[in-house]
Amino acid sequence: MGSWTAALLYGGISGFSLLIGGALTNVVTLGRRMVALTMAFGAGVLIASLSYGLMEESYRCGGLDAGAVGLVGGALVYYLAHVTLLRHPRSSGSHFTSRSGRPGAGLSIVTAAVMDGLPEQFALGVGVKLGSSLGLLVLAAILLSNLSEAVVATPELAKERGTSGTLRLWAGIGTLSTLATLVGYLVAERVPGDVLGFLLAFAAGAVLAMLADTLLPEAFRRGGRLTSLATTAGFLLAFLLARL
Fold it and tell me: Is the pTM of this model over 0.85?
């Protein structure tokens, strides 16, 4: 079994990767296509972590019914939250970049980052506690997706809040994310198996909805057809990690 210090370490590394990605924008300038391909690669890792990590663990803990209800529930809650809170333009679900200078884009980015990230971080804590490959898979997926998200979103946030204010926001989200990882670690063996299976599948549903709604469309918009190859490469890496 993993220790709570491992959960804290994993949660801190993944949660504060948003802060690291935001800080990188002040040091190096990454090309539009490089960022897009990193996003696509991270999406591939996430897809594999859902398939070979979260959903398999959900089925093992709670069975088919808990997994199915949780998956649909997570996707539905994500969808309703985004429709209600973020009000994306009809033509795009992206929350990484503003459209037509719409006011409040920065707040939308922060709100979306919290909604996207907390289910992943919870699942990461569960994976550390169970001592399975789930923790490593989710950690790799969160790192890649968070770094690319922060690189894309930080310039938009900086327009409203300045660079220092943006970095403080990323740090706050990193703190919440680390706490969510610890919560996942603490409840992993304290709740009934079907409840844990539901929670893992719920996280998987929310992440899967985010991939379809935001990460892959944004990667394709920025990187073009090469995103398909990058996504496949990410999936392959995560598949090998899960099997090895």
Answer: no
